Amino acid sequence: MMAGLDQATLAHSAGLSAGTISNVERGRDSRSDTLRAIRRALTREGVLIAFSANNGLASVQISFAADNEEDE
What we know:
Elements lengths: L6 H8 L3 H8 L6 H13 L2 E8 L2 E8 H7 L1
Antiparallel strand pairs: 1-2
Helix pairs in contact: 1-2, 1-3
């Protein structure tokens, strides 16, 4: 559970079904519109997600807004 969100809550916030969230977690659905909806929903909850590609490998960095505030 990330940022205190279960699948049903994240699905509701993203405008998706809980089944779609489950599929994404298992690597079964990676359509760009689905991932964007999840990213927007997580961002609203203070989860910051950054994507980068390096030498053909994709990486994801996840941090929480509260983590950044502690550094200031």
